[in-house]
Amino acid sequence: MAWWGKALGGAFGFMVGGPLGALMGVAFGHNFDRGMTGIGQSDWKVGIGGNQDRVQAAFFTATFSVMGYIAKADGKVTRDEIRLAEEVMRQLGLDGEMRESAKKLFNEGKSDDFPIDEILDQFKSELKRRTTLTQMFLEIQLQAAYADGVMDPSEEKVLAHICQRLGIPLAQLKRMEEMLKAGFGGQRKASSGQSSLPDAYAIVGVVKSVSDVDLKKAYRRLMSQHHPDKLVAKGLPDEMIKDATAKTQQIKSAYELIRESRGI
What we know:
The chain is mainly α. It has 15 helices and no strands. The chain has helices spanning 2-9, 12-16, 18-28, 41-45, 52-71, 79-91, 96-109, 116-127, 131-145, 153-166, 170-181, 197-204, 212-226, 228-234, 241-262. α3 (18-28) crosses α5. It starts with a helix and ends with a helix.
């Protein structure tokens, strides 16, 4: 992908600038890091126009650095959280230099002076109105928060803050959490590829009493939000398409289970 070559070549630190550009300097081992503090918004807002390469670079950089920040939210980073971060990298199809860069970003997120608000503000500006990418970002952060099987109150507080900063309703976070508990995108149940009927309803994001018409609408909306081709077109890095593909298969399987139970 184009942005990956530019990142390795050092160009993106100057193109993107701001706190995300500084993080990229650390992750890719170049000398364009101008420091993670003291960078005015005008330094990185100039020229922002939703460029595909920039969006992909911003998504990759913010995803793994914020993941590290969430892991540190409860005051410590457990082996389970490190393992989960590595598992997410595997699920997303990262290997080689991209995987090493993701690990560096994760470690940067654990630092005491990590500028979370500046990172989120720039991330929001880079993505503009790409709500599907914002949702994918939040789903990955939820997976990180549930690394050890439970959501720590401090992690829950950080996720709520992330939603507030990105303009995501808390009700949407709660729906994503219920989907995750049902096995969506996670390791607990998704590994078997099978869901119970209650899990299926949770994955599709509806209650059992939903009408057939509204069930179909919810299914189509979810498929549109997670369709790999659409996400890549919006700016999801190509290397991270594996996760989106697996999620669409889970949605399809859940929907088919519900349809079979209803005889439709």
